[in-house]
């Protein structure tokens, strides 16, 4: 597949507050990768108020355009996601930093909005959550973040986090284990943080055929 030279994309639909211009080193018909610069522009302005440089990224293309704000676990993963990751009412940014997630999937740097500095600031603790199987999910109602991982076909784990002082705190995990000797059942282990202590419950359900 032929590799094209450096490409630039203008993302007007990423956020209602700002536009993003992405310049990336190499592209082919389906994707782009390599060194990239992400410039952030207030709507209607031609000069960026911030630029973020990454040594690598991965951009999945749809009809020649980058995917934005789309996270379908085994299918589509955006180069940039805009959401409120620490639940302070301000837009934060997740930017794909390459394919360093589970099973060689995309991984993400998480940048939080800093009102005093007027820019996005890298958050290392939340970035660690961006290296699971795809981008983590955001539950605005519960104010929680959820990651998903698996080992082969038969072991899955979902972990839920609250965010305290811009750091994720795990409050629940659900393990689904279909590797047990009885092949007709799935062992589901749920661990929940209650008043600072972990409570564990185990149940078995019939395995789907």
In short:
The chain is mainly β.
Give a verbal description of the structure.
The protein is mainly β. It has 2 domains: 131 residues, no CATH class; 74 residues. Helices cover 3% and strands 55% of the residues. The protein is built from 1 helix and 16 strands. Strands 1, 2, 3, 4, 5 and 6 form a 6-stranded antiparallel beta sheet that branches. A hairpin with an 8-residue loop joins strand 7 and strand 8. The N and C termini lie far apart (40 Å). The relative contact order is 0.10. The model has no long low-confidence stretch (mean pLDDT 91).
How is the main sheet built?
6 strands, antiparallel
In whole angstroms, how far apart are the ends?
40 Å
Rg calculated over all Cα atoms: 19 Å
- Reading the helices and strands in chain order gives EEEEEEEEEEHEEEEEE
Features:
single chain, 55% strand, 1 helix, six-stranded antiparallel sheet, 16 strands, mainly beta
SSE layout and pairings?
Layout: E1 7-11, E2 18-27, E3 31-42, E4 50-54, E5 58-62, E6 65-66, E7 80-83, E8 92-98, E9 107-114, E10 119-122, H1 124-129, E11 137-139, E12 144-151, E13 155-164, E14 167-177, E15 185-194, E16 197-206
């Amino acid at each position: 597949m032929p590799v094209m030279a450096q490409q630039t994309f203008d993302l007007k639909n990423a956020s209602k507050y700002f536009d993003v211009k992405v310049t990336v080193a190499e592209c082919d018909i389906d994707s782009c990768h390599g060194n990239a610069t992400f410039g952030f522009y207030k709507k209607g302005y031609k000069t960026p108020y911030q630029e973020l440089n990454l040594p690598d990224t991965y951009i999945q293309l749809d009809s020649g355009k980058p995917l934005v704000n789309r996270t379908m676990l085994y299918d589509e993963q955006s180069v940039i996601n805009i959401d409120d990751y620490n639940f302070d009412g301000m837009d934060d940014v997740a930017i794909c930093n390459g394919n360093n997630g589970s099973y060689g999937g995309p991984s993400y740097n998480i940048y939080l909005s800093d009102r005093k500095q007027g820019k996005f600031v890298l958050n290392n603790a939340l970035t660690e959550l961006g290296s699971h199987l795809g981008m983590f999910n955001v539950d605005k109602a519960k104010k929680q973040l959820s990651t998903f991982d698996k080992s082969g076909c038969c072991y899955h784990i979902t972990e839920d986090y609250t965010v305290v002082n811009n750091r994720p705190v795990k409050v629940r995990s659900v393990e689904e284990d279909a590797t047990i000797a009885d092949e007709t059942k799935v062992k589901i282990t749920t661990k929940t943080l209650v008043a600072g202590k972990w409570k564990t419950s185990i149940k078995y359900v019939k395995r789907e055929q």
